[in-house]
Amino acid sequence: MTEKYDSYENAIAERINGILKQEFDIDKNIENIDIKKQLIINSIKIYNNKRPHISNHILTPLHMHKQDKLKRTIYKSKKFNDASIVEL
């Protein structure tokens, strides 16, 4: 995910992992790996197709990517010495 293995360097992935764990309970102690895989697949489908996101103007990621009128949110880097902009 990141070259430095630092969660601050990969905030987007860390945020999504947190949502999947907190909202969809994918970190449950499920012994059956097939059930665990299916839970993850279903969670990702719901996240992308049914869960609206504030940063996407209350659209799901699927709807946001299909439309071309609204602009995607742009976040500035938190590093003080780095003026680059990260576009989502």
Question: What would you say this structure looks like, in words?
Answer:
- This protein is mainly alpha-helical and 88 residues long.
- Helix content is 42%, strand content 7%.
- It is built from 3 helices and 2 strands.
- The chain has helices at 11-24, 33-49, 61-66, and strands spanning 74-76, 85-87.
- It has a two-stranded antiparallel ribbon with strand order 1-2.
- Strand 1 and strand 2 (85-87) form a beta hairpin.
- The radius of gyration is 16 Å and the shape is flat.
List keywords for this structure.
mainly alpha, two-stranded antiparallel sheet, flat, 88 residues, 3 helices
Layout of helices and strands:
Elements: H1 11-24, H2 33-49, H3 61-66, E1 74-76, E2 85-87
Antiparallel strand pairs: 1-2
CA-CA gap between termini: 15 Å
Indicate the low-confidence ranges by residue numbers: none
From N to C, what is the helix and strand string?
A: HHHEE
Form type: flat
Strand segment tally: 2
Mean pLDDT metric: 78
Structural class: mainly alpha
Number of helices: 3
What is the spatial order of strands in the main beta sheet?
A: 1-2
How many whole angstroms does the radius of gyration measure? 16 Å
